[in-house]
Here is the input.
Amino acid sequence: MKEELLHFIWNSGTLMKRNLQTHSGEPLHIVNSGTLNTDAGPDFFNAKIKIGTTLWAGNIEIHLKSSDWKNHKHHTDKKYNNVILHVVYHHDAEVCYENGKPIPVLELRNIIPPLMLRKYKQLQLNQNVIACENLFIIPKEPLLTNWLNRLLVERLEDKCEHINELLIQNNNNWEETFYTITARYFGMKINAQPFEWLAQNLPITVLSKHKNSLLQIEALVFGVAGFLEEPHSDNYIALMKREFDFMKSKYALEPLDKSIWKFARTRPANFPTPRLAQFAMLIYKSSHLFSRVLEAKDLPSIKNLYKIPVNEKLNSSLLHSQQSKIKNTEFGDTATELLLINSVIPLMFLYGKKLSLDDLCEKSLSLFEILAPENNAVTRFWKKLNVPVNSSFDSQALLQLKNNYCARLNCLNCIIGKEILIKNE
Ligand code: SF4
Here is the structure.
C-alpha cells in the first residue's frame, strides 16, 4: 500500500458517493475533497466535510497509519492546526489537537473497494509494455481529448525548457537558437550532439557574411565539421578546402575532430555527410529563417521554406570520395514534418509564450493538429490498442504519456489509470 493510492482515492470522488463514518462512529459526508497541495503542509486544502450535522471547512491530512502524525512531527507544526479530517489506511493511534480534542479520523482499510485494490496491484506489478495493457480502456470524450491536450502542452513545455537553456546561452538571440536546434535535428538521434557542436563552433554571423556563395557555406560547414583537414583528390572538395583554409584563419574557426561523427548503425541516407550537405543548402537558401517561419501564414508556406534542392556537384564528390554511400536525395516531406514537430513548432511556442503572443501559441498548437502523426514503434503500439492517432497532436501527446507516465508507472496521475481504477468499483 502506498500513500499515493490513498491520495488518489480521496481525490477521485468515489468516497463522496458512500455513506461513511468517522472512526468514532459519527456519520461523515464529503462535500468537497479540496485541492491537492504539492508543497509543505497538509495534503489537501479547502476541503468541506459534514460530520453529523456540522459542516466543516479546512484541510485534510492523509497517512498510511495515524501514528505517522506524530512520527512526522505534525503535532508541533502550526500548519496542521486547521486539519479537519485525518484520513488513514490504518488507525493505530489517537491523534489530538493542541487543546487535547481528538482529530476526526476516516479509516480506509475496510472501505477501499477490493476490485480497485486488485487493479492497482495489477498495474504496479505488470511487466507488459505498458502496465495497463490487459486492463486498457479508452476514456470517453471529452476526457480523452482533454487528457491528450494536457500531455501535448506538457511535452511542449519539456522541449521549451531545453530550448530556453540554449536561448540563455545565446544571449537571447532567437535566430542563433533556431539555427542550433535546427542543426541538432539534422543530426537525427545519432549525430545530434556533433551537429550541436558544429553550430556552436560556427556562428551564424560568420555564415551570414557568405550567404551569397554556396561553395563558401559548404566549405564552412564541412570545414568546421572536420572533413576538410586532409588534402583531397576530388576537385570540388579540394576547392572547398582552399576556401575553408582561408576562412578558418580569418575567423579563428576551430574544426571539430572528424571522429565524432557516427557512420555506423545508421542508414546511409542519414550519414552525417549528406545531412551536412542538406544543412549547408538550407543555410544558403534561407537567411533569417526563423523570422520567415514566424511570418509564414500557413503550413504549406512553412513547408515551402524547407524545400532544399540538392547540389549535384557536392553530391557526386561525396560519392566519389566515399564520404557518402548513396546519392543524396532532397530533404523530403517526412523529414520536414519531423523537423517542424520536434524543433520549429516548440520554438514558435516558446517565442509566443515569452512575448505573450497568444495567437502564435495557438497557431503552434493548431499546426500539430494538421501535421501527420509520426510512424514509429510508440505510435504503432497505441494504434494496436485502438487509440486514435490521427495527427501529430495525438502522436506527440501519446509519446509523452508513454515516456513520462507509463515508463514511470505514474498510473494514478493518468486519466486512463483513473478510469481503470474507478470502473465498476
Ligand atoms: S500511465 Fe496510464 S496509460 Fe500508462 S500504463 Fe499507467 S494507466 Fe496505462
Q: What stands out?
A: The first strand starts at residue 20 and ends at 21. The radius of gyration is 29 Å. The chain has 18 helices and seven strands. Residues 130-132, 401, 405-406, 410-411, 414, 416-417 surround iron/sulfur cluster (CB under 6 Å).
